[in-house]
Write a structure and sequence with these properties.
mainly alpha, globular
Length: about 180
């Protein structure tokens, strides 16, 4: 019974954010994803390369909408994605013949590695999973996947976050680098 009571939760709902915060979050996420998508569709896609992946949408929520979160800091954004990409590619190379094992290992090992390196960034779990389930366009990249799209895309989004998040007098990003 005590175990089930824990599922009720014990905290309070966070307060709503103001309109100013919503506008800056919207602007940052629009500009960050637009920059990555523009490069993807106008340059890389023509060469059968990719830059736009689903986990960057989740990163946008953190780095533009939850700028104070430890999970949104540059170390976490870059380290979480790159390390998870390396783990995901390795999981696919070792266990791709059993995709369900490769998928589970990619996500769980990436979480452990992010914890060990203090780079926890939840979208990193999706980045690792994409390395396994992303299909031939991702699998043919091998470990290059950690560089393009992952490191390059995350760096572009970080640069946009540095510019946009600091335009507002009420915002400061990042809280720390290391």
């Amino acid at each position: 019974m005590k175990y089930l009571k824990k599922m009720k939760g014990g905290g309070q709902r966070p307060p709503r954010v103001g309109l100013n915060e919503i506008v800056w979050s919207w602007l940052g996420s629009f500009m960050g994803i637009a920059a990555v998508a523009l490069i993807h569709y106008k340059i890389l896609d023509q060469n059968a390369l990719l830059l736009l992946i689903g986990s960057f949408g989740a990163s946008a929520v953190l780095i533009y909408g939850a700028t104070k979160s430890p999970l949104a800091q540059p170390r976490n954004l870059l380290g979480g994605h790159v390390l998870s990409a390396l783990v995901g590619v390795t999981a696919f190379k070792l266990f791709g013949f059993q995709p369900w094992i490769a998928a589970a290992l990619a996500v769980s090992v990436s979480i452990a590695v992010m914890h060990l390196t203090t780079t926890l960034h939840p979208p990193g779990g999706a980045t690792a999973l994409i390395a396994v389930i992303g299909g031939d366009s991702v699998h043919h990249l091998g470990y290059l996947y950690a560089v393009v799209p992952i490191a390059l895309g995350a760096t572009i989004m970080l640069l946009v976050a540095l510019v946009i998040n600091n335009l507002s007098k009420e915002r400061l990003y990042p809280d720390y680098w290391y």
